[in-house]
Amino acid sequence: MDPVRNPYVPGAGRKPAALVGRDATIKSWHVALERAERSVTDQPFVLYGLRGVGKTVLLTQLRHDAEARGWMTAQLEAGSSRGSGSANKSLRMLLGEALYEPLSDLVRPNAGARFLKALKTALSFKASYDATGTWTFGVDLSGTPGGGADSGILDTDLRKIIKDVSLAARDDGIGLAVLIDEAQELAEEELTTMASVTQAAAQDNWPVLFAFAGLPSLPQTFAEAKSYSERFQYSHIERLDEQDAEEALAKPARDADVEWESSALAHVVEASGRYPYFLQQFGQEAWNCANGTVITLQDATLGVAKGQQLLDNGFFRARWDRATAKEKRYMRAMCPEGDAGVGSSEVASRMEATINSLGPTRAQLIHKGLIYAPDHGVVAFTVPGMADFIARQVD
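Above: the chain's sequence. Below: its structure in token form.
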């Protein structure tokens, strides 16, 4: 069929034509938005799960829903560009830059005193990480009180900027939504500070909502940062159930006047493991293989094969190539259990090494986001299907 009309969109964070199976989280977010507009601030949302389950897509949908109500929003990815050299971006810098556009969009000649104060605070926050910053917002703020978000103390500065911006938004009958993807990448001080700021916002009912998305280890990471983070609203984002997985494939096709044979639909759903990313990849390839207006089992079988090859060369390969030779051996030793997880002691035994000697390798794999510890003494892959991919690789 015509690839231009193909409704399936594999890719990191790309919203599928049919966003299914996430209604409960979206509804809870809507309630929280309305409550915040009534000066009742709810606890942060924490979305956690494996790679490929659609956390970023859902996080972005929450942002869109906030924007639909006129809210100011700042969505950012923790640790983006973090690494060696001058490209490192701290939470301070990422948040400051993410706030610039929504603040600029609300600048107007008759802006109230609270909003002007927020602009002044934003300028000071900018100065805290960029001494050469040239933000002006096009208004004269020389006689405006405010600022004070440049103390150099992260907790102090983040509290100041979040408080002043959200209270300025309240004057317009809206609020501020801060959404942080890959939250497990936050540095320890950043994570602790965010937990502290969210607690202050809830206690004083600032009109601000927070949403975090990250790997399965995120709840434990928050709990270790601040004990009261146990009260956050946690949503384990898992693979779709069978009915939703079928709908994720069938609805976009129906909307384009195309049907799936039931056997073709079942084949793709099973092959995907019901993971949204894989559904989109296999669905896209099955569509491209089909002729006419019906996707057959033959189309689906060929589509899965082509889709798997694309995943191997991209989705999986990108992660495998990040590992050192020793890290690859460690991951191979994890493979017999598939995606279920395996004891660290068993991995050490298979590698004929001690747990202590493999500690640095395990830590590096966790740091790279390739594995995580679902329980004490247990490791598992963060990417579904990784064990099968590794089994297909030749030493």
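The radius of gyration is 23 Å.
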